[in-house]
Each structure stands twice: as structure tokens, then as C-alpha cells.
Specification:
single chain, globular
């Protein structure tokens, strides 16, 4: 049963990799105004980019922790699939602070507010692909192997 889960999780990456400058998948009907962000989850329990952005900009420690955990979880999940699929989606430098990943997401939405109603995980992936684009020829190249701290 691993394969259907893989396809489900990788689907936004495959769609986005085919249309790098296209719109981010929408989880529900577009809202009338991009400044309005619903308080609840989107259809199917999905979290919107606007909802994640609210948590990322919040001064409440639990919200900030949620933001960092969500974005880092998306990053780590994509990296795991990159290794498994032998393909690169983005090229984040080693040891990049979580705050830099968060800022990439916030900056992306500042420049592309129309994606506030998009699925949060898909928007995080697009933001990281734009901020940490791989050099020419690196797209589709296998990820660098993970190294343990042991010689």
C-alpha cells in the first residue's frame, strides 16, 4: 500500500514540475478577495497557504512552532521523495536555518497573493523551488547522498 500513498503525496510535485510558472493547485473555489482567509481547513481537511501564513506571521509561540514544523516537514518529505525518485525538486543548501525556509514561503506569498487560497504544502514546495532553484542541468539530477556524522 506504499505506492498509492507515494502517488498521492507526489502528485502536487509532478503537476507543479510540469507547469513551473503556472498557478498553484487550489483546494477549493477561489475566494472573492485574497485578503480574506478562512479560519477553518479547506475541503478534505487541507490547510490553505493563507492559514499557514497567518501562523507564520503570528507572535503566538505555538503558531510560530506550527509554522516551522509544517514548512520543515514539507521540506523533509520532498527531500525523502527526491532520494527515492532520484530527482531534485529544489536545491536548499545544507544546514539552512528553518527561518530561511519560512521566509521563502512568506516572501513568495507577498509576491503572489493569488496563491493564498492554494494548498499550503503545494505553495511551500513552489516557494522553495523558486528560492532554491537548482542550477542548470541539476533538474532531474539525483540528490546528494545524505552523510552521517561518522567517517
Amino acid at each position: 500500500m506504499v505506492m498509492p500513498l507515494v502517488l498521492l503525496l507526489a502528485a502536487p510535485l509532478l503537476v507543479q514540475s510540469q507547469k513551473p510558472n503556472g498557478p498553484v493547485p487550489q483546494a477549493s473555489a477561489p475566494q472573492a478577495s485574497t485578503s480574506q482567509v478562512s479560519a477553518g481547513p479547506l475541503a478534505g481537511g487541507l490547510f490553505s497557504a493563507g492559514q499557514l501564513r497567518q501562523r507564520c506571521l503570528s507572535n503566538v509561540p505555538a503558531d510560530a512552532s506550527y509554522c516551522f514544523a509544517y514548512i520543515t516537514g514539507v521540506h523533509d518529505t520532498v527531500r525523502a521523495y527526491e532520494a527515492w525518485l532520484n530527482q531534485r525538486e529544489f536545491c536548499v543548501p545544507r544546514h539552512v536555518p528553518q527561518g530561511d525556509l519560512r521566509q521563502a514561503f512568506i516572501d513568495y506569498l507577498r509576491d503572489k497573493p493569488s496563491d493564498l487560497s492554494g494548498e499550503a504544502a503545494s505553495v511551500v514546495v513552489v516557494a522553495l523551488k523558486i528560492r532554491y532553484a537548482c542550477g542548470s542541468g541539476a533538474r532531474g539530477a539525483p540528490p546528494a547522498p545524505a552523510r552521517s556524522g561518522k567517517p
